[in-house]
Write a structure and sequence with these properties.
The protein has 244 residues and is of the alpha/beta class. Helix content is 21%, strand content 28%. Strand 2 and strand 3 form a beta hairpin. It is globular and about 55 Å long.
Length: 244
Amino acid sequence: MKVIPIGIWGGYPKANEATSSFLIEHEGFHCLVDCGSGVLASLQNFLPLEKIDAVVISHYHADHIADLGSLQYSRLIQFYLNNPSPPLPIYGHEQDAENYAKLSYKEQTVGIAIFEDKITKIGPFTVSFCRTDHPVYCLAMKFSVDNRSVVLTADTEWRDELVDFAGETDLLISEANLYEEHIGIAPGHMGGSEAGKLAQLADVKRLVLTHLPLHGNNEDILEAATSNFNGTTEIAEVGKVYRV
């Protein structure tokens, strides 16, 4: 299994970059996790859009879905050019009925519901979900294949349930949107120290930080994470291949 960061920012992207998104690959199957602002432009550096086999959406905030409409339209254009593809499955929860309905588009994409505590088969992956603590309904996710796994926390404050959910995973991709002085003040997100604490308690093998703030020095978030986790920790690097 290969995991490639497509974007690393929370809220909105820096110039020529993208919000937090990851491409997960195994045996030629390509699954995109979240599709926010700038993701399509970044993704095409690593994969043609028509090669995407599935998309999973953690929640419906703009920094996670802003480019979905453009992705859908890209497939419609290929249809008009006599280069059609089977409908692209886009997985998302049904708690926001209006946005869930938008996952299906003109027979080019089809929305498929995901649920907390229910396992879903997506290509070669076995995918499970866990509700996070965010202002809107949001799901963390675990991709497993051949006794290996990667967990993506999506957007969340500290939540005890995530410790068991991420237990002994090979790669934990954790949001770390807050500097330490903002923990408990800004709702729905974790600081670096909390990401490190989650990795340590869950006994994960490797921690990668994402959904970073656009202000300040992100190295402070990395330092806070490493203060609580004894394993390998780094800030996600766009285009780097993390092998699991």
